[in-house]
Amino acid sequence: MQNTKHTITAFTIIVHGDPLHSKSHASAQKFIKAACASSQSISQVFFYGDATTICGTVDSSPISLRRLQQQWLALSKQYKFSLQSCITTAINRGIVDTQESEETNKKVNLTEGFELEGLGVLAEALLSSNKLIEFGA
Amino acid sequence: MLTEKLLIIIQQTAHAGEDSISQQFKETMDAALAMATFGVKVSLWFCDKGVNYLKYSEQFKILQALEYYDIDNVLVTQNDADIFKLSKHNSNIDFSIIDSKQLASVFEQNRTILRMN
Fold first, then answer.
1. What part of B 21-40 touches A (C-beta under 8 Å)?
2. Which of A119, A136, A134, A45 has its CA nearest to residue B30?
3. Which of A9, B19, B46, B84 could form a disulfide with B50 if both were Cys (CB 3.0 to 4.6 A apart)?
4. What ipTM was estimated for this complex?
């Protein structure tokens, strides 16, 4: 009898392309849907560099950015993974979370559902034997 | 205990004259140093125009930090070194020149390969 045992792989997804000027976000989302449809799991999505602008919202944010944000939030809820952004690169691009707001008096613009984390999160993912898949610019 | 190995590819040009390029390089290096801090064995492969970072290494102070983070596996292929006229004499970074066979072996040795730029 054929062995049909299926090994589940936990993926950590790294996205570092600009959400408005690259296809990295759309490609990552397609990969996640395909992976989850094949009974694999996503442990987290980590946004780095230009990709971190996805987690902020200002009144003038383009509709396409807001739509992409909603798609990320919906995927995160559906497949139960966290949406994390590198805190340093996000702050460099004007993203403000509660802590940053308290320190600088700037208005919070981090969209609910996204978290700002240090690079240690990425190192932990690497050390935890997760598979890392990168979606670049 | 096995050490987790990570290869980071640096391919962007060093002298594009755009802040975003240098910011990308800085962020790539920040990621490399952070990973090394957490005990990941990081190797850097400078390829294509990224080789210029090594050639003009005195302009990129962050490269001097590599040795303090135990990032001693800095790689360039012979082909790229020839194209960009990089030699041990015109860089103050200690790098290794490898051939394509050795590069294949580097890919095999590193479970994760990232190109964060």
1. 23-24, 27, 30-31, 34-35, 37-40
2. A119
3. B46
4. 0.86
Q: Is the dihedral of CA B108, B109, B112, B114 positive or negative?
A: negative
* More confident call, A126 vs A130: A126
Of B49, B12, B52, B33, residue with least CA distance to A137: B12
Evaluate if residue B31 carries a pLDDT over 80. yes
Output the pTM of the full model: 0.90
CA distance B42 to B92: 19
Is the minimum CB–CB distance between B112 and chain A shorter than 8 Å? Answer: yes
pLDDT > 70 in chain A, percent: 93
Q: Diameter of chain B by CA atoms?
A: 44
Amino acid at B82: D
Handedness of CA A34, A36, A39, A40 (dihedral sign): positive
- Measured in residues, chain B has a length of 117
